[in-house]
Amino acid sequence: MGTHMDIQGWKRYVSGVILLSAAIHTSFAVTHYSIPEEMEEGSVVANLATDLGLDVKTLIKRKVRLDVIANKKYLDINKEKGELFILEKIDREYLCPAKTTCFLKMEVIVENPVRIFYIELEITDINDNNPHFRRDVIHLDISESTSAGERFSVSNAVDSDVGSNSVKTYYLSESEHFDIEIQSGRDGSKFADLILKKALDREIQAVHNLILTAVDGGVPARSGTASIIVRVVDANDNAPKFDKDSYIINVTENSPIGSLVVNISFALALFSTDQILQFSLHIFVHCANPCAQCRSFPTNAFYTILLIITPTGR
């Protein structure tokens, strides 16, 4: 019984020594590297054997291996040369979406004796994405009575790239009536407000077609566009106009009911299908002899007829 306990104790002692030895040979220093995203497969990142002080001739025997922490294996070690190389292209936007920094943490492990080295690989952004708008076409309805100086929000552009490669400015196609003002969000993002710099007149131009362009800060710069379609809403600022101010018409007293008396023409500066026209007649009878009360159509009587046309919305 005592012999068995001695053997178990000895095993625990040996295991403890091995673990302590492994801990002693573990390097707690972190070796840093930095590479741009999208490097070709097979590209060499660094010579680990040189940087970590390992003998290339013993790497295979010591079963050197690379563990990528919490990620797929984008890199590996060439055991014959001691080089860290790209196993699969790294897409920074996929690996670290919407982050300003991106790191891969790795461990290099060798045996006989056991040693562990910590590697931190920074993936830097390249300008490989165009800015784009959430909507390719932006529709705005603006009343022609809107005062100059009014501003309108439009959809901002987004860019998967970060830092200097993200959206930096906007440009608007040439316009007599519109301009843009670039604003900065709390997170540093850029967006544009559309500014009305000259009053609109639907009777002159009912639709304005504009192009908004977002440009990033990369070299060379990339850009994306969206169409802005401004529909000018009628403010009913033009009264109907008759071709004459007054009409003098002679009508015989025996004219049958329904007879055409006169054709009256009028014009609207702009009439749309969402309007209806209301007509109202106001008749005033004038008699030379008030006692006759104009119950018949005396030869010395005349009528003043006031015709009013009112355009209204439906």
From TrEMBL:
Intracellular or extracellular location(s): Membrane
Residues of the Cadherin domain: 27-133, 134-242
Single Gene Ontology MF annotation: calcium ion binding
Cleavable signal peptide: none
Swiss-Prot/TrEMBL keywords: Calcium, Cell adhesion, Glycoprotein, Membrane, Repeat, Transmembrane, Transmembrane helix
Recorded topology in the membrane: Single-pass membrane protein
GO process annotations (BP): anatomical structure morphogenesis; homophilic cell adhesion via plasma membrane adhesion molecules
Family matches, as PROSITE patterns: CADHERIN_1, CADHERIN_2
Main location: membrane
Top-rank lineage group of the source organism: Eukaryota
Record's GO cellular component terms: plasma membrane
InterPro entries: Cadherin-like_dom, Cadherin-like_sf, Cadherin_CS, Cadherin_N, Protocadherin/Cadherin-CA
Pfam families linked to this entry: Cadherin, Cadherin_2
Protein name (database record): Cadherin domain-containing protein
Source organism: Pygocentrus nattereri (Red-bellied piranha)
